[in-house]
Design brief:
- By secondary structure, the protein is an alpha+beta fold.
- It folds into two domains: about 55 residues; about 200 residues, Protocatechuate 3,4-Dioxygenase, subunit A.
- Helix content is about 20%, strand content about 20%.
- It contains five helices and nine strands, in the order αααβββββββααββ.
- α2 packs antiparallel against α3.
């Protein structure tokens, strides 16, 4: 163990007082991409009839252009319709699991100074042990279902997951004094927040996942009754297969084939369709996982 860092025991309130002076937004306006796409696909209202001197080639080109525009517009409309249809679907409520570390089941990492952080790979406080594994960046976009799925700015998320061997800090044997792979972030004006972590392992009976709790605000994280949602992110199969074939994930490679997404005791009820992350990346460069969370 290393020597405790300065202020390591002053708690979450100390973190909040220093965090407020460093708050920053991502600078990406929510929905801008969708609006731009719709604008680009909208046919012009000022088009006139073809001149009598138009050639057959010009007529054919105009017809092809109109057909392409109509196809593009239909595609954009389909995307918007699907997004709107899913807007009212709140993230499924799930169990905290046996290792939440939020005070509901033993240790409470939420009361520790240092828990507010983007990079959750290392322990903080009296230890700086770093969890090894393939890099994973998790981005959540929080949406307010009662307000037309507007960004839920200022809400807070506590995220945690197992290490590459399927073990949890604070609980598993030998990890009782570690608190890595746990952290808190505040949603920006776009309702977004990001964690830098490692790809979690697979353990018996569960599909690979990341736990999270959504709180009304940073200041209410330790207050009773302020949890807006408790759920889990499901990671996708292609990424899991690639990661578990890499060094360090030998135990996961043996365990992963034994549980499917539909047989998982959490995601199995609906196949995880509202919790399955959109993922990209590689073992060499790391992976990204993104999920919209409607609460």
């Amino acid at each position: 163990m290393t020597t405790p860092r300065p202020h390591h025991d002053r708690g979450l309130e100390f973190d909040l007082s220093t965090l407020l002076s460093r708050r920053r937004s991502l600078g990406v306006l929510f929905g801008t991409g969708t609006v731009a796409a719709l604008a680009a696909c909208t046919p012009s209202a000022g088009g006139g009839s073809a001149s009598s001197s138009s050639t057959a080639g010009s007529t054919a080109a105009a017809t092809a252009s109109t057909t392409a525009a109509a196809s593009s517009s239909a595609s954009a409309t389909s995307t918007v319709t699907r997004a709107f249809a899913e807007c009212g679907v709140e993230i499924p409520e799930e169990t905290l699991g046996p290792y939440p570390g939020d005070g509901s089941n033993g240790p409470n990492v939420l009361e520790a100074s240092g828990v507010v952080r983007r990079d959750i790979r290392s322990s903080f406080g009296t230890s700086t042990t770093k969890a090894e594994g393939v890099p994973l960046t998790v981005t959540l976009t929080l949406l307010d279902n009662s307000n037309g799925c507007a960004p839920l700015a200022g809400a807070a998320v506590y995220a945690w997951h197992c290490d590459q061997d399927g073990k949890y800090s604070l609980y598993d044997s030998g990890l009782e004094n570690e608190n890595y792979l746990r952290g808190v972030q505040e949603a920006d004006t776009n309702g977004q927040l990001t964690f830098s972590t490692i790809y979690p392992g697979a353990y018996k009976g569960r599909w690979p996942h990341v736990h999270f709790e959504v709180f009304e605000s940073m200041s209410k994280m330790t207050a009773a009754g302020q949890v807006l949602a408790v759920s889990q992110i499901a990671l996708n199969e292609p990424a899991c297969k690639e990661v578990y074939a890499s060094p360090g994930y030998e135990s996961s490679a043996r365990t992963f084939p034994n549980t499917t997404l539909t047989s998982d005791n959490v995601f199995g009820d609906d196949g995880g369709i509202y919790q399955l992350a959109t993922m990209s990346g590689s073992v060499a460069g790391g992976y990204t996982a993104a999920l919209n969370v409607t609460v």
